Amino acid sequence: MENNIYLDHAATTPIDPRVYEAMQPYFTEKFGNPSSIYQTGQIARNAIERARLEVANILGALPDEIIFVAGGTESDNLAIFGVARANQHKGKHIITSKIEHHAVLHPCEQLEKEGFEVTYIPVEKNGIVDPEKVKNAMRDDTILVSIMYANNEVGTIQPIAKIGRTCKKRGIPFHTDACQASGALPLNVDKLHLDLMTINGSKMYGPKGIGVLYIRKGTAIKPIMFGGEQEKKMRPGTENVPGIIGFAKALQLAEESREKESVRLCDLRDYMIREILTRIPKVELNGDLIQRLPNNVNVSVLEIEGEALLLRLDMKGISASSGSACTSGSLDPSHVILALGKTHFVAHGSIRFSLGKSTTKKDIDYVLDILPKIVDDLRAISPITI
Amino acid sequence: MNDDQNINQDGSGWAYSDKVKEHFFDPKNLLKEDPETYKADGVGYVGSPACGDMMKMWIKVDPIMDSIAECKWRTFGCASAIASTSVLSEMVTENGGMEIDKALRIRPQDIVDRLSGLPDRKIHCSVLGDKALRAAINDYFRKSKQEHRIIKDEAKVVCKCMDVTDHEIEDAVLEGKLTYEEVQQKTKCGTACGACKPRVEKLIEQYKLQYFGE
C-alpha cells in the first residue's frame, strides 16, 4: 500500500519495540513455569513479581493489589461478577453508566438475569456522567459502582475522582475501566479514590491478551475461574509470563511519555477537529471539546453511512472506525452515540479517528485532503439531503 | 499461502467479494441529474434513515416491450447496500432491458448470487433493492393506469395478541434471529396466548430458505 495511516489506536496499538525486546527472552530461554521450584521456574517467578512491583508503583498501589488477567474484558468481568457475588448478602444493586464498554454492560445485563438490579446512569449531551446523578442513584443495597475513566468511542473523560469520593463516603466499592486512559491520564488509585481498576496492554503499545485488575486491599471479591493457586486464586492458570513482562514495560513507557505526548496529541486532535468542521459542511462533533482524550476525534458526517466511508478511506490507506450499525455484528448503531441523545441517522454517520505515537501532522493533513472528496462522492450516492 | 490472505469464506467475516467492491467503488446507473428534473415513469422509495438503509429508485419504461429502459438510483447505506442497488440496476437494464414481469420476480437471493455472495450480516442490505424496484414499478403501474397490475405487499398480522406482522418476523430473520425463541424475544410474538407459534415457526423456515438458503 502506498500510504498506510493508522488512526485506530483506540482499537489497538502496535507493540513498542522496547516492549517486544523485553518480552522475547520469556518466550524462549526463560520459558519456565513460575510455579516450579527449580531455578528455571524461579527466574520466571522473579520476573513477574518484579513486573507486579513496577505496575504497583505506577498506580500507587501495593504489589498484592495487582492481579494479572488475560485482557481488559476479563478484568472487567472479574471486577463486576467478583464483587457482585461476594457482596450479594448485603444487597443486589449496581450502578453503571449507559456509555460503558460492552465488557461492563454485558456482565451487568447477565447479573440482571441472575436477580441483580442495575441502574444505568444517562450521560449529558457532551457524553459526560454527572456525579450528582450517580450520588442520587445510590441506595442502601448498592454494592458496586462502575464508571469508565475515559470513553473508547467519543473520548470523554469522566469525573471519576469525584464519583470515587462519594463512593468512599458511602462505603460502596468503586470500579473504573481505564483501558483508554493509560498513557493519557494519571492512574494513581488513591487520588482517584478507586477500589478496582481495569487496564489492558493492547491499547498502550503492549501485547494483546494481557491486562490487570487492581483490587484495593480489603475489597470483598470472589474469583470467577477456578483451577489453581496463581494470582492469589483470583486468576488461576499458568501465568502469561511474556505478556506480564510486556504489560509492565508498556505501562512504564506510557507513564514516562504521558505528559509530553498528551500535549502533542491534543494539538493534533484540536487541529484535526477544527479543520474537519471547517472544510466539510454538515458535520457534528461527538463528545466534549475539552474533557476529551488527547487522541480522540469523533464526528458524524450527515447524509452518509460510516462503513461506506471507512472502506473508501481504507482504499486510500487510512484506517479508522465507525459507530454505524453496519460495522457492528448487530443492526444497532453505537449505544454511546445514541446515549448522547443523537438519532440513529447521526450515529450511522459517525467516524472515529484515534491518533497515536506514530501520528504526524503530515498524516492528518493527508486525511484532511482526502476526506472532503470521499464525503462528496458518497453524498452524491445518497438520496438524503438535509 | 500468504498469512494475510483472507481464508474466511463462510460468510461470517467482513470480506467482500471483488464484485461487491467493483460496484461499491464504481457504482453503475447512479442518478447524477437533479432528481427534480429527471423524468421517470416510476419512482420507488424504501427504508428510513432511522433503521439504517434508505434507497430511492427511478425507472423509465419501454411501453412497447413492457420492459425497463432505464433504472437510476441513490442509496444511503453501507458498501453492500450500495453494491446491491448498483448490481440490481445492471441486472434489469442489460441486454436491452428486462421485461417488467420478470423484474418483479427478482428476489434478494438473485442479487446476492450476482454479487458472488455477501457476508451473512449483510444479507438484509440486499432486500431493500428488490423492494425499491417493486415500489418503482408499482408507481409506474399507477401512473400509466394499469392499477390491476399493482402487487400489494401488505403486512398480515400473525400474532393477534401482540399485533406482530409477517413483515416484522421477516425483518427479525434478516437480522439473524433464526429460532422461534430469538424471533419471539425481538418481536414479542406469541408472548400472550401463544396460539400463533406454529404459524410463526413456519414463517421463520420460509424466510430462512428465502434469504439464507438453509
Give, in order, the helices and strands of chain B: HEEEHHHHEEHHH
> Can you tell me the overall shape of chain A?
globular
Helix amount of chain A = 25-40%
Strand order of the largest sheet of chain B: 1-2-3
Strand content of chain B: 5-15%
Write down the overall geometry of chain B: globular
The end-to-end distance of chain B, rounded to whole angstroms, is: 31 Å
Number of DSSP strand runs of chain B: 5
Structure notes:
The complex is a heterodimer of chains A (386) and B (214). Chain A is α/β, with parallel strands linked by helices. Chain A is built from eleven helices and 13 strands. Chain A has helices at 17-23, 39-59, 72-87, 102-113, 131-137, 160-170, 241-279, 306-315, 335-339, 344-348, 361-381; strands spanning 5-6, 66-69, 93-97, 117-121, 142-146, 174-177, 196-200, 211-215, 283-285, 296-301, 318-319, 321-322, 350-354. In chain A, strand 5, helix 6 and strand 6 (174-177) form a beta-alpha-beta unit. In chain A, helix 3 packs parallel to helix 4 (102-113). The model of chain A has no long low-confidence stretch (mean pLDDT 96). Chain B is 41% helix and 14% strand. Chain B has helices at 18-25, 79-93, 100-103, 108-114, 123-143, 166-174, 180-187, 197-212; strands at 42-47, 54-62, 67-76, 157-159, 164-165. In chain B, the strands form two sheets. In chain B, strands 1-2-3 form a three-stranded antiparallel beta sheet. In chain B, strands 4-5 form a two-stranded antiparallel sheet. In chain B, strand 2 and strand 3 (67-76) form a beta hairpin. Classes of the chains: A alpha/beta (386), B alpha+beta (214). Chain A binds chain B through residues 303-308, 311-312, 315, 324-327, 329-331, 333, 343-345, 348, 380-384, and chain B through 24-25, 27, 30, 32, 35, 45, 49-56, 74-82, 121-122, 124-125, 175.
